[in-house]
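Researcher: Quick test of sequence recovery. Tokens follow.
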């Protein structure tokens, strides 16, 4: 089924990449050899007849003939099922009442790790519900199968023979698609970055949370999003990247598609967090979910919510980020001292404008943070606790901006957070 909307029909031929569907209620009956155990999108309606982990009843003695499996999945845009003679089904009612199923083939490479999944993912869901919006469906199923990880409404197919970090990683990523594709039903053929990218961003934060709780191996890091910013800049510097506005099926290379959809999409959220400030950005992301859940948001809808929540004008960011390959490159230029005062020239070397956080270290060892908004924003980011001095706007047409401080300076750094997508970070630092 394909979607009809203000752009007409979205009858994309399916080439094994992204798709865009309509919402509906699925009522599915599958008659299949009794030897098979099923797992699927939706709620099993005849669990009392099926048993096998779905309900506490004795398994039918006879394995001959067929049995009917009846699933209902409401308000979804796809339905998936998997079947195997060897599936076992575990389940757990998570903290918020969501019933979660785990269908896998027991063995030395699966059982131990799959038994760990329910508690870890319950913890993950608590974090996800609080930060990205509440999971609205009654069930979800993690099903062993497929060729890596593939997302569906209320279920995912994942390959199962993985170490625990990888198994949790794929589970969190595919489940996260429930938020950015199944619930916020973006046309991912046109805007795959709003699904894969946002999913990747939220997955990185959730995995970092699980590491902080020591539920999976690896170290908690202060900022789990820097890697995607660095990875994107590295690829963009090869010249092989393409704009986000390209249709998913029409990128020149798989790599260009992957970096645009997964990496640059994640970088989009990092940039907005950098531009708006962490707290405002986080409430904006929740507002986006609440406003657009079970609808089909497009980039305008998304950026409009970011504007409403931050009070900032963000058209310029959308236009550069989505429709061009432009990137920011800022540098510290001349630093001149006279009569105890210091003039610092900052240089805008590329087309894309960005507001700047500038950290200045004085001769006496003290450090101060300055913020330079750009005129196009008609406002500036909200800083959490740090004290910061907001300077006059940088008119985006001007390649040089001069700031003055009333002390001798020994160091200047643009964007100490490493969050801003900056073509060349080496010119961000000046030392006496
Ligand atoms: Zn994905």
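Model:
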């Amino acid at each position: 089924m394909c979607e009809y909307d203000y752009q007409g029909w979205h009858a994309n031929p399916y080439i094994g990449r992204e798709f865009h569907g309509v919402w509906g209620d699925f009522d599915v009956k599958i008659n299949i050899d009794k030897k098979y155990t099923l797992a699927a999108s939706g709620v099993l309606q005849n669990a009392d007849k099926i048993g096998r982990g779905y309900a506490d009843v004795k398994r039918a003695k006879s394995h001959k003939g067929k049995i009917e499996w009846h699933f209902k999945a409401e308000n979804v845009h796809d339905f998936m099922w998997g079947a195997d003679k060897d599936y076992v089904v575990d389940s757990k009612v998570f903290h918020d009442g969501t019933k979660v199923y785990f269908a896998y083939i027991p063995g030395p490479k699966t059982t131990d790790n799959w038994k760990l999944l329910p508690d870890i993912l319950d913890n993950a869901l608590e974090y996800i519900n609080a930060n990205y919006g509440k999971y609205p469906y009654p069930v979800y199923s993690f099903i062993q199968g497929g060729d890596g990880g593939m997302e569906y409404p209320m279920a995912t197919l994942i390959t199962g023979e993985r170490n625990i970090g990888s198994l949790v990683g794929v589970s969190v990523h595919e489940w996260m698609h429930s938020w950015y594709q199944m619930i916020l039903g973006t046309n991912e053929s046109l805007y795959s970055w709003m699904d894969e990218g946002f999913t990747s961003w939220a997955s990185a934060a959730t995995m970092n949370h699980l590491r902080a709780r020591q539920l999976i191996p690896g170290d908690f890091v202060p900022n789990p999003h820097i890697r995607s910013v660095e990875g994107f800049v590295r690829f963009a510097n090869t010249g092989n990247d393409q704009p986000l506005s390209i249709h998913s099926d029409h990128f020149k290379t798989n790599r260009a598609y992957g970096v645009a959809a997964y990496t640059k999409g994640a970088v989009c959220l990092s940039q907005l967090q950098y531009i708006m400030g962490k707290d405002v950005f986080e409430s904006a992301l929740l507002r986006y979910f609440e406003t657009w859940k079970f609808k089909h948001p497009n980039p305008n809808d998304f950026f409009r919510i970011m504007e409403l929540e931050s009070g900032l004008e963000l058209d310029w960011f959308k236009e550069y980020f989505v429709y061009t390959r432009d990137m920011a490159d800022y540098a510290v230029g001349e630093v001149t001292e006279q009569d105890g005062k210091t003039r610092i020239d900052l240089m805008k070397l590329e087309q894309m404008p960005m507001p700047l956080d500038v950290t200045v270290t004085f001769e006496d060892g003290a450090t101060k943070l300055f913020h330079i908004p750009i005129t196009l924003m008609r406002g500036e980011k909200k800083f959490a606790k740090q004290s910061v001095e907001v300077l006059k706007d940088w008119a985006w047409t001007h390649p040089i901006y001069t700031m003055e401080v009333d002390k001798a300076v020994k160091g200047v750094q643009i964007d100490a957070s490493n969050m801003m997508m900056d073509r060349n970070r080496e010119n961000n630092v000046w030392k006496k």
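The two ends are 64 Å apart (CA to CA).
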